[in-house]
Amino acid sequence: MEINVRFIPTFLAIVLAFSSARAQPLVVSISGDEGFLTPFTYVTGYPGYNLLSLVYDTLMLPDLNGVVQPWLAEQVRSSNGGREWTIRLKAAQWHDGKPITSEDVKFSYEYYRRYPVVGRFATAVRLFSQIRAPDSRTVVISLPRPDANFELTTLADVPILPKHIWENVTDPKGFRNNIGSGPFMLVEVKSGQFIALKPTLTTRHSDRVLAGFFGFG
């Protein structure tokens, strides 16, 4: 199922246009241009962040009932009274085929802190005491105090970036690369006209989960 997002100036309409074989594209009309769809360039919370979430994964994700569940993470557990969080990653790949590792997660959170004025995600990671990657699939995050909303406001909200692509980028607002690990990959952007995405569905992704991004299903 391909998604084409087209800009309509005065309203938001979602049109399902696919056959029983799910071969036809899904066309989503939105009210404005959402930019190049990176964590530093998308414009609005809805539908911009929803579209961004099709391209970039978070460690956790609210299910259709609003309950936060592991997503890119395989297991999430807290200790030390909620001051330490240990995240075990699933075996997963970026869209370019490279493996996702704990170093990508560590890098992402530190990168958002490095450029707080050009992206909103710095707020969710600013109070970390420490973040470690003891092995390739384990991330340990230490907080100065317990945070009851940590899973929702950080683990289920902050997109993970591929370190091998972003580590030398010093102008995140101007950078144009959309390699993520989400269920869709950005194919083409024409400013003021459309955004085209194609599926990269894996065992972590399903049509029912995708429906949750747009509120139907």
Entry keywords:
about 25% strand, 11 strands, about 220 residues, five-stranded mixed beta sheet, about 20% helix, single chain, four-stranded antiparallel beta sheet, alpha+beta, D-Maltodextrin-Binding Protein, domain 2
CATH class categorisation: Alpha Beta
User: What structural class results from the helix and strand content?
Assistant: alpha+beta
Main sheet specs = 5 strands, mixed
Q: State the share of residues found in helices, binned by percent.
A: 10-25%
Using only CA atoms, what is the Rg?
Answer: 17 Å
What coarse outline follows from CA principal-axis ratios? globular
**If classified by CATH, what would the architecture be?**
3-Layer(aba) Sandwich
The termini sit apart by 15 Å
Instruction: Give the SSE order as H and E letters.
Output: EEEHEEEEHHEEHHEEH
- Report low-confidence residues grouped into runs of 5 or more: 5-21, 206-217
Report on the structure:
The chain is α+β, with helices and mostly antiparallel strands and 217 residues long. The protein has a single domain (3-214), classed as 3-Layer(aba) Sandwich (D-Maltodextrin-Binding Protein, domain 2), CATH 3.40.190.10. It is 21% helix and 26% strand.
